[in-house]
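WARN no homologs supplied; continuing
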Amino acid sequence: MRILAPTGALGAGFDTAALDRGVAAGPHVIACDAGSTDSGPAALGSGTPKLSAQAVTRDLRLLLKARDTLQVPLIIGSCGTSGRDDGVDWVAGMARTIAAENNLHFKLGLIYSDQPAERLQHLYDEGRIRPLANAPVIERKLFERSHTVAMMGVEPLQELLRDGYDVILAGRTSDTALFAALPHLNGADPGLTWHMAKTIECGAACAIPPDANGLLVTLRDDHFDVTTLADGSRLTPRSVAAHTLYENADPFHIAEPSGTLDTTHATYEAVDERTVRVRGSRYIEADGYTNKLEGAELVSYQTVIVGGVRDKVVIERLPELLPMAKKYFDAKILDVFDGRVDPDTIDINYRLYGTGTVLAGTEPTPLQPQELGVLITVTAPDQGTAHAISTFVAHASSHLPIPEYDGLVSTLAYPYSPPEMDRGPLYRFTLNHVATGVTPTELFRTTTEEV
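OK structure emitted
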């Protein structure tokens, strides 16, 4: 079987020449991921996709035309970045418009993965929601304020493939399931199938250099060959093997809803500069089926201020001045809002880029920057309060008292006027759990139509 992964994410873009090479190889299925939790909780919490409608439409148009040429299934998962129901509807609307504009005809299947609070509370009450490593502690009422999706495996996709659906647009999906569904359905070796799927889930991310273009896999009884499609790119055994570590703490054991991929004894062999052959993977079926649950909720609103400083004295003094400034701001909040705003509900955070902020103070040797980038974030229960507080935070932060200097000092320089920028709603992930004791399809619902 030949499986085409045209890009790492729908909307990320790809070269048409690379897609043409993949189509010319005659794949039996085209599959593409459209999202993940990589970009944080905002897409899941708000329903706003990460990538633009223009970028997604461009890629989808090319893939629908390629599917029409080949007359093979096209599978797209985690629609709208988060896989929310409205993300599926968003991409489905694009597909209908593209079909009308280009005289395309296909059987369309939509799989939804939103989880109603009542269902989750029922699973919770029965003790069937299990935390994964480092998961937050949850309580029953969380499900009422959190937007939650379940991550599907291959089985909901396979139901539509069995029934001959041409285009499948799915909610939150295991990235690998998109590529494993058809080979798995046709009886391919499960170890090779899941390893193949893991290798191409991000398109040409395992190529040298990594890019947004695609890969083609040829899956056989005892091995698979993976080939890069873009001009100027190549694959090596090391680059292919390395992708099993991507998004995984363990490069040899990768969990899926139905079991675990074990690549401990896999071998990687260069066929040529563009192709690597893989053998020896195996798949260990789990004792019970699980679906991962992902949730996000709105927690507050933020306004941000970006500034910089190149004065050595100011840079050295900032670490001791900022705690003093925060105490001043607490008093200022009580005064300005006449006690209506509790300072404990407001977070004023300074990130000093150039002094080890990215590593959160774990630099092995002290840094002595010549200049410093300062990101100030004001977080409050509503946007108006966040913005109002940020105005006097920005003003005071630009004139902090420096003991070594007499008179008024400009401590921070702002590149924008006004410096306060409303970032909008702030979301947080609420779940890193699995639903246990479920059948592979019970948490998902499907609708179909002729387009």
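The radius of gyration is 26 Å.
OK
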